[in-house]
Specification:
Distance between the termini: 49 Å
Number of strands: 6
Order of helices and strands: HEEEEHEEH
Number of helices: 3
Radius of gyration: 22 Å
Shape: elongated
Structural class: alpha+beta
Largest sheet: 4 strands, antiparallel
Length: 114
């Protein structure tokens, strides 16, 4: 019986002292969009909205299809996005943050809600 106590004590001292650390962040560089390495984000307007390309808008809508139901209220296609100039789009600050959140979930492998 004493050996069982020693085994249990050893197991607890090893497993209880193990530190759980988050996954290390990977450096990510912007992808090319239209020959420019900007991932489809062109910049900010004075009111904090973002100017994005068609490709970024398509990615945003694709992420809504995967993760849109994780938000309350549920996100719908093109929510917060409006046509701007020269084939670009404005995405308001709130939805730009949600776009970034969904993109991070994709990178982290977060499963979509069913």
């Amino acid at each position: 019986m004493a050996w069982l106590y020693v085994v249990a004590l050893t197991f607890c001292s090893v497993s209880c002292s193990t530190t759980v650390a988050p996954r290390a962040a990977n450096d990510v560089v912007a992808s090319f969009d239209g020959g420019v390495q900007n991932s489809g984000f062109i910049g900010f307007t004075e009111d904090g909205s973002g100017v994005i390309t068609q490709h970024a808008k398509d990615r945003y809508n694709g992420l809504i299809g995967i993760y849109g139901n994780k938000f309350i209220p549920v996100l719908v296609t093109d929510e917060g996005v409006n046509a701007y100039t020269n084939g670009t789009y404005l995405i308001d600050a709130e939805h730009l943050v949600k776009f970034g959140t969904m993109n991070q979930w994709r990178r982290d492998g977060v499963a979509p809600m069913k």
